[in-house]
Each structure stands twice: as C-alpha cells, then as structure tokens.
Write a structure and sequence with these properties.
The structure is a single chain. It contains three helices and five strands, in the order E-E-H-E-E-E-H-H. With 140 residues, it is α+β, with helices and mostly antiparallel strands. A hairpin with a 5-residue loop joins strand 4 and strand 5. The longest helix is centred in the first third of the chain and has 19 residues. The model has no long low-confidence stretch (mean pLDDT 84).
Length: 140
C-alpha cells in the first residue's frame, strides 16, 4: 500500500502540509482533502448520548471515489491527517492504513518537539518530509 497524497490539517481546518506523489493533479488532491474535512466533521460530532465515549483516532474510509480512497485520522488536539490511496482491485487492509497514520503521527510529534517550530505554522521539517516521502508511492 502506497499513498498518492498525504495532508496534515490544523484544528482550524487550515492546511499545514500537503504532498502528492504525482505533480499533475495536485489541485485535484487539494479538492479531495478539502471535501473530506466535511466528512471528518460529521464523523466526529457525537450524538447526544455518546458524548463521553472515547473515540478511536482512526476514522477509516472517509469516502471512496472512482480512482481513490480517502482515509482520515484525527489526533486528540484535533489535527487531522488525510491519506489518499489509489483504488485498486486489491483491498487495502485497515492495519496497513493505521500503520501509515501511526508513522505520520509520530513524525508530527517529532516536529512539535522542535523548539523552532510553532504549532499552527506550515510544516517544513526535513525529517517530516523524509517520513512522508517514504510513505508516498514513487511518481510514475
């Protein structure tokens, strides 16, 4: 499983980071990331009786398209990770997708430990870029 787009979105829904494996349809992936924020908001809003339940940070498939599947993950601080993978005949296992999100979350936490990084600013860390590059499929 290799991602074609990875995005990190701040709790105010501003993009902190977006990288694609393919340069051509980058604007297309911006659209997918933006529309998936509405789906995340719907999934996160708790019904009246379930407000105190602990939620899983992995949100699963936000929505599939003809060519891609969009997955979501939200941290306790409401920072959102969105991963877009190609919709192939082989099903992506949730365990593989969760591992991608764990790697992203760890890289994001390492970025927060940097004393020169202010939360809410765009992510420019070389270490974070290296982690994302390892998760993205090579551009064909």
């Amino acid at each position: 499983m290799a991602a074609v787009c990875i995005a990190v979105i701040a709790k105010e829904n501003q993009p902190l980071f977006l990288r694609t494996a393919k340069e051509d349809p980058e604007l297309h992936f911006h659209y997918f990331v933006h529309t998936s924020l509405d789906v995340i908001d719907e999934k996160v809003q708790a019904p009246a009786g379930r407000a105190n339940e602990q939620r899983d940070m992995y949100l699963g498939v936000l929505y599939p398209t003809e060519d891609y599947r969009i997955y979501g993950y939200m941290t306790n601080t409401r920072v959102k990770f969105i991963v877009i993978v190609e919709n192939t005949n082989s099903l992506n296992k949730d365990s593989e997708i969760k591992q991608v999100f764990r790697s992203l979350h760890m890289a994001y936490c390492q970025n927060l430990f940097n004393p020169f990084y202010s939360p809410g600013e765009p992510i420019t860390s070389r270490a974070f870029n290296k982690t994302v590059d390892s998760l993205l499929q090579p551009a064909a």
